[in-house]
Predict the structure.
Amino acid sequence: MKSIKYLALFIILLTQMSWAQEGMWMPNLISQNEGDMQAMGMKISTEDIYSYNHESIKDAIAIFGRGCTSEVVSPNGLLFTNHHCGFDAIQSLSTMEANYLRDGFWAKSFAEELPSEGLTATFINSITDVTDKVLEGVTKEMSATERQSLIDKNKQKVQAGAKKEAYQTAKISTFYKGNQYFLFIQTTYPDVRLVGTPPQSIGKFGSDTDNWMWPRHTGDFSIFRIYADENNLPAAYSPTNKPYKPKHYLPISLDGVEEGDFTMVMGFPGRTNEYLTSYAVKSKMDARNPARVAVREASLAVLDKKMRKDEATRLKYASKFAGIANYWKFWIGESKGLKKFHAVAEKEKYEAEFTKRINANPQLKAQYGKILPELKKLYAEIEDYGVVLDYNSEIFSRNTEMTLIATIIAQLEQLYDKAGEAVYNQYKGRYADYIKGMYKDFDPEIDQEVFA
């Protein structure tokens, strides 16, 4: 399920038996689970979690930058997030003379807080299921190209007609591989300033060795503040901006928790692939992940060698190194986990049960009996192409900066051709800021060696 940058809920209950019941729900649908959640010990209503009509917890949860979760914890817009989420902003603000990444930073007043160019905080105002509108006119007889073309047109129409304030944006996101669509109305604040961060030795204690590991001991936090104009509305950086006054903020309790207390996490969890078949899991584990890991391993070796030579290069490439290393470590761990817990065999059990059930019903067998054999055949046919695609995307769109810049420009051109000038204008500033930030710490000799 694709949910990157869009709000979802994880509900986890810890009991005396250290048992957890887990799930992920869209907040606008969370009322369906209110009874179960209250039975688990929740003391508030789901209206207190997500509401369109009055303030709720959702108004304290923000997308930090390009996708991390952050939370407002004070009436003056103080924002907590992870150190690894603030890493890029902290690195960008650091210099050899004031190396906040290495040494940490703590503002003692509003005036000392550091503007972070290009950094944003985005709040979700409302979420609406618009599946019927997006799929209007789509038929089974359409080719994939015809289907997607109509869907894109319908999405543009729905987004253009969405009710919102002038300072808000409308965005439709796809879920369950195109089976469900949600419209998000959101408000983005472009003036976000660094308030405090521990030194990297604390914020990233254990470095990439401990990343994605459990248990893990690290001070993985950083603190920022959102600023707004005199009307508390989004505004570009200005010395006259004021700390943002949130609709809601999360009060901090020093009482701690007891075993068995109800626990809920709210944020932006990225994406899941829970419904992949055994064939897809096996391909990911045995072919796709190893290919990606190999490319990133080569890039990291070059960067590590260069960064060890002098402190200036270490600072310049700290964020880029961390970004490449993050999923390098993730894919290694994912493949190990899939093997350790026999994920392919578990998937095969589900598929065997699925086949048994549909074979018992002639109508279901006629409708769905060919699905798994066809998927098995297709995954076998496309695996080699998938690996080549992974090599291409890793080399040209992730690890090498000059080719990444070319890719971004090409994507922007495609966006203009496909979605029109209005949508293009929405995104061009963001793309330009991203490219500008890349050039700030760009070293052509290092990039050439990575590419080689």
